[in-house]
Amino acid sequence: MYHVVIGVDDNEERAMTCARAVADLPGDAAEKRVTVIHSFTDNPSGASASQLASVRDATEYLEEQGLEVEVNESSGDPAEQLLDAARDADADLIVVGGRKRSPTGKALFGSVTQTVILNADRPVMVAGELD
Which residue ranges does UniProt annotate as crossing the membrane (predicted)? Predict the structure, then answer.
């Protein structure tokens, strides 16, 4: 079974881009297992990851494609949480969404995608835009 971990933030479009990329991976849907993870950096309302539209949409799409899906949530630095989840699950692939950021934005605020790419100990696929 090929295990994919997808990091999903609050953006529904990026979440769906990642979900479609995973569904399009070679092989039968029955041979793939997906863990969708969302890391809360601030959650004053106490929401669960499954209540977020981005997580719910991606999960529903993957299930409609016949993939086995699990949702995990964590709190803290999203890149670290995603890398830890992939390592703990011994995932075969990490999938993250790309987005355009200015060089100054990257330097000042960092990038979850960039951090995951640079620190992953397994393959990383970036779905969507990356400048």
Answer: none
Q: Which residue has the tokens 């990490």?
A: 94
Residue 51 and residue 36: Cα distance in Å, rounded?
Answer: 13
pLDDT tens digits, one per residue of 55-107: 999 999 999 999 999 999 998 899 999 999 999 999 999 999 987 666 655 55
How far from 112 is each of 9, 41, 79, 93, 130, CA to CA, in Å? Answer: 10, 12, 5, 16, 12
In the chain, where does DSSP find H-type helix?
A: 12-23, 53-64, 78-89, 103-109, 112-119
Q: How far apart are CA 96 and CA 9, in angstroms?
A: 9
Domain membership of residue 83 as a residue range = 2-128
Structure-derived torsion over alpha carbons of residues 118, 12, 6, 129, reported in degrees to the nearest 10: -40
pTM score, whole prediction: 0.89
